[in-house]
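User: Hi! I'm working on a homework problem where we have to compare a predicted structure to a textbook description. Could you give me the structure for the chain below?
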Amino acid sequence: MTDLSWLGVAERDAIGLSLQVAATALAGLLPISILLGWVLARWRSRARIVLDVAVHLPLVMPPVVTGYLLLLAFGRKGAIGSLLDQLFGLVFAFRWTGAALAAAVMALPLVVRPIRLAFEAADPRLNQAAAGLGVAPWRAFLTITLPLALPGILAGTILGFAKCLGEFGATVTFVSNIPGETRTLSLAVQTLLSAPGGDGPALRLAMVGIVIAIGALVLAEIVTQSMRRRLGLSAVPPSRPRRLA
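Assistant: Happy to help. Predicted C-alpha cells:
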C-alpha cells in the first residue's frame, strides 16, 4: 500500500472521503449511463434531442446552478428529498451521500459520451442476424452489443471516476464543506488556501489530484486500446479503396 504518512490526517481523510464518494457515485451512475448510451445510440425519434440535451446539460451549466437545483430537489424540504427521507430515511443534503449524488450528476455526460459512441460503432446487423437465429433481444444485447461496447464503457468509467474525485462546484453548493462528512479533496484544497499557512498542504493535495487525473487519462487510453485489440477493432477507420481509372 502506498505510504501517505507525508500527508496530514485531515488531508488523508479528504482523500479517503473522495475515493468513497467517487466509488459510490460511479456504482450508481454506470448502469444508468449504459442505458442512456444505448438509448441515445439506437433511438431514432426526434425526441432524442431532448434526452441528449438533458444528459449533457451539467457539462455546460454552471456547477453552482446544478448544486442549487439538487438542493431544491433533494434537500430535506425538496419534493424528492423529503419523500426519500420519510420512506427510507435517506438524506442527501449536507451528507457525503449528497456529495456522491452531485458527483454522479456532474460526471454523467463524461460517462455517457464514450459509451454512446461505442454503441453507435457496434454493427446493428449482428443483432439482426442473432434475432434471425432465434436469439432473444436481451441475450443478444448481453452477448454481442455489450462486449463490443466494452472499450467505451471502460473509458467512460475511468474518466467518470476521475471527474467524481475532482468535483467541486455542485458539491459545495449542495452539501457544503463539512470536515469529515463532505470535505472532499477539492473542498479541502479550497479550505487550505483560505487558511494561514495552508499553501503547503494545499499544494500537496493539488499534486495528488493532478497525479490521479493524469493516471486516469493514461489508464483510460491503455485500457481502451487493449480492449480494441482483444475485440479485433481498429482504432483507425479503414480507408476507402481507390477507384481504378
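For your comparison, note the following. The first helix runs from residue 9 to 42. The chain has a mean pLDDT of 85. Good luck with the assignment!
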